[in-house]
Design goal:
Aspartate Aminotransferase, domain 1; 15 helices; 389 residues; single chain; Aspartate Aminotransferase, domain 2; five-stranded mixed beta sheet; binds pyridoxal-5'-phosphate; alpha/beta; seven-stranded mixed beta sheet; 2 domains
Amino acid sequence: MTDHLSTQCVHAGEIDDPNGSPHTPVYTATTFKFPNTQAVLDVVAGRTVKPLYTRYGLNPTLLSLEEKLAALEGAEAAWSFCSGMAAESALFMAHGRKGIACLGDAYGGTLELLRDQLPLLGIPTHLLLGDELDQLETLLRQGIGLVFFETPTNPALELFDIRAISELAHRHGALVAVDNTFASPVNQQPLALGADFAVHSCTKYLGGHSDLTAGAIMGAKELLGPIWGWRKNLGQAPAPETAALLARSIRTLPIRVRQQNASAQAVAEAMHDHPQVERVLYPGLPGFRGADLARRQMSGFGGMLSIEIAGGGAAATAAADRLRLFALAPSLGGVESLVTQPCTTTHYGLAPEERARRGISDGLLRLSIGLEDPADLIADLKQALAPSA
Ligand code: PLP
């Protein structure tokens, strides 16, 4: 019988420490001793998995974390990384060389990597927006190997159908990777819906306290196999101290995310009725365009929402600058609420027409809801949006 997610978050992967520590200790060692040469050879030849060298990921703290990461997504295995971008780049190197289609809006760094760097290595990349999905089948017929997308997307909270896209890609022999950072495994399980990989910036909800940078890929062992060498030789494994901090944070992931879901819903509803707000983008609002799909493939709607301020860019900037509890910072998923105006941060690099095509107006503010009392967050937004403020 598989334990529930909350139980897995606490117990999965924890080693049985001889000194009685209730959780896996931090092994800062870079290398590990063996009783004899045969034992070294067994690990080097891949016959057994044992601590060997930390950069290889063969460190007890990392191995323990990876069991927990795999359990989160119901995966056979997981690799941990020193950042979300490290995880994505290793995935693209291992499985994207025949071509990658990225659907919808993605994190700015992902878009830059796909648009500017991977083509320099001869890797064909295709950025399709939500209204261009009819082109996906043509690309699949041409033989691209990997379909990658976020759902919900950043910052417009667009939803993509994981099951339908996975079925289409698999019919053509391509793999599917879902960046599950925004939803977190508490709200969405891409592998159970048919995707081959769940990818995370653990810097966000999994870390949860805005104090660590890490990444992860979860999936079947066979598909993770080719990624291992890229991580090892590009030096992308996380530091043991970071791995331990991440495991510590994952133990409280479900309780944090469920509160963030509830608070974001309350904030979304309050903003929906606010005269200074033109649009609220949140999958948990009944009128939202992706609400039906969200109900089908998510068990909670997450702690991220975007609001479009009446009066455009200048009004949104003024409101963001007046917020007291929301910190003006371009990240997400932590215990503290954050606000960012995408046209000044995450999507600054896109031309205004390109932002408009993606539904990112200058008046859009992205909110990451933390663990403060939602009544205080709503009061803060109301004072920042008051016409006389
Ligand atoms: N994926 C998403 C959805 C993100 O928001 C980010 C960062 O903001 C990344 C990936 C990249 O993660 P990292 O900053 O840990 O490299």
